[in-house]
Design a protein that fits this description.
single chain; about 450 residues; alpha+beta; Rieske Iron-sulfur Protein; Naphthalene 1,2-dioxygenase Alpha Subunit, Chain A, domain 1; 2 domains; nine-stranded antiparallel β-sheet; seven-stranded antiparallel β-sheet; 22 strands; about 30% helix; globular; binds FE2/S2 (inorganic) cluster; binds fe (ii) ion; iron ion binding; dioxygenase activity; 2Fe-2S; aromatic hydrocarbons catabolism; Rieske_2Fe-2S
Length: about 450
């Protein structure tokens, strides 16, 4: 089903509509995409003390993420090894142990089975508790962001993020204080396939001036100029798009990190105060990225907007529905008033009832459920914007597209999605490491452009 160009055609830059609808595709995704990728679980700031825990999901699997006494983090499947009941029903808290509701089996903070009611009298000393701990998943952390993975053969989190770390460090480390997430997350149900928001956040700069035309006009600030996609906009000077080895990518709008913050204190002042330090640490290109607005997705299902500072996880609920979890992303060392201002603006724009969130939600639902029709579903979708106007760049890692309004990172996301569906294991993915970007055929785009400018 997936070994040809049917689901994703990297040459024609098109995808089958089945990718948003088909149950077999979805089941394969659960196994080969979600089962083998590093998935966002939480941020250290959400569970700062030993004993703190949060419950979350890895795709449809319920997971407990628990802060250990030694400061590390462990994650295990939130399902009792006795008769399968969910172990913990709280969203978060601090617990010495987790006790199953059904028959009272007790799991430690590390997921080990530590106590069983009537163990001696009714199991007659035959129960091997050491073999009946909750099932663990791998946990690794990058700059405070905690990820889990269900595949023992997957590369480390650092390798998985790969060259995308060059970009992430700019903001996840920034001037030195790093970021934190404000929780608990807002949660909502959206009737769409999980890839629709992921592809939107990874690189759909095209929809901003159209879908959000009304809201941008209301909000004001620099982004209001994008409303309506006026033909006189300097599209090639507005920013770039990036895609990297494992499908992570983003689009950046230059000088727009504080654009939706109409007041110029708080977040805008924080950026102005810290940008020089970022430039000293990371160089001029990343200083420019630091003050740009990013729409970003980390493959497969975690997205954020830097500038607007909303942080999303798209938990799939079957092929046609997702649970959206929305956090606010703030600089760890900002003062309380600035954090509160950022949270207010993020909620106003991309909270569950946010103005821009509402604009997007309707399209995401429509783009999924229109495929209910058999004739419709037989067709394809196009993502060819900017083909050939992209390539390797002397400074920026990955493949760089010429404008933030393009589909370079879109194509990069689906290129890797198909690679994961086709690959029998991570060894097959790694074997393609030196050749992954060959689908971006204009190798000289940036060299020619830079030479022409000199
Ligand atoms: S199902 Fe959990 S104790 Fe029986
Ligand atoms: Fe949008």
């Amino acid at each position: 089903m997936t070994e040809d160009a049917h689901l994703v055609d990297n040459v024609e830059s098109s995808q089958s509509r089945e990718i948003f609808w088909d149950k077999d595709v979805y089941n394969l995704e659960l196994e080969r995409v979600f089962g083998r990728s590093w998935l966002f679980l939480g941020h250290e700031s959400l569970l700062p003390k030993p004993g703190d825990f949060i419950t979350t999901y890895m795709a449809e699997d319920k997971v407990i993420l628990s802060h250990q006494q030694d400061g590390s983090f462990r994650a295990f499947i939130n399902s009792c090894t006795h008769r399968g009941n969910q172990i913990c029903h709280a969203d978060s808290g601090n617990a010495k142990a987790f006790v199953c509701n059904y028959h009272g089996w007790v799991y430690g903070q590390d997921g080990r089975l530590v106590d069983v009611p009537l163990e001696t009298r009714c199991y007659h000393g035959q129960l091997d508790k050491a073999k009946l701990g909750a099932k663990h998943v791998r946990v690794e952390t990058y700059k405070g962001f905690i990820f889990g993975c269900g595949d023992a053969d997957a590369p480390s989190l650092e390798e998985y993020l790969g060259e995308f770390r060059w970009y992430l460090d700019t903001i996840w480390e920034g001037a030195g204080g790093g970021l934190e997430l404000l929780g608990p997350p807002m949660k909502s149900i959206l009737a769409c396939n999980w890839k629709v928001p992921t592809e939107n956040f990874v690189g759909d700069g095209y929809h901003v001036g159209w879908t959000h035309a009304g809201a941008l006009g209301q909000i004001g600030g620099e982004l209001a100029g994008l409303a309506g996609n006026r033909a006189d906009m300097p599209f090639e000077e507005l920013g770039f798009q990036f895609t990297t080895r494992h499908g992570h990518g983003f689009g950046v709008i230059n000088n727009a990190a504080a654009a939706i913050h109409v007041k110029r204190d708080g977040w805008a002042k924080y950026l102005a105060d810290t940008r020089a330090e970022v430039g000293r640490k990371f160089g001029p290109e990343r200083e420019e990225l630091y003050v740009g607005h990013w729409n970003c997705s980390i493959f497969p299902s975690c997205s954020f907007l830097y500038g607007t500072n909303t942080f999303k996880v798209w938990h799939p609920r079957g092929p046609h529905e997702i649970e959206v979890w929305t956090y606010t992303m703030v600089p760890r060392d900002a003062d309380a008033a600035t954090k509160s201002m950022i949270q207010r603006e993020a909620t106003r724009s991309f909270g569950t009832a946010g103005t821009l969130e509402s604009d997007d939600g309707e399209n995401m639902s429509s783009a999924t459920h229109v495929n209910r029709g058999n004739i419709t579903r037989d067709g394809r979708m196009d993502s060819s914007m900017g083909v050939g106007f992209e390539g390797p760049h002397p400074v920026y890692p990955g493949i760089v597209g010429s404008s933030f309004i393009g589909e370079t990172s879109h194509r990069g996301f689906y290129r890797f999605w198909k690679e994961m569906l086709d690959a029998p294991d991570w060894a097959a993915v790694k074997a393609n490491d030196d050749n992954w970007d060959s689908v971006f055929t204009n190798r000289d785009y940036w060299a020619d452009k830079i030479e022409a400018a000199e």
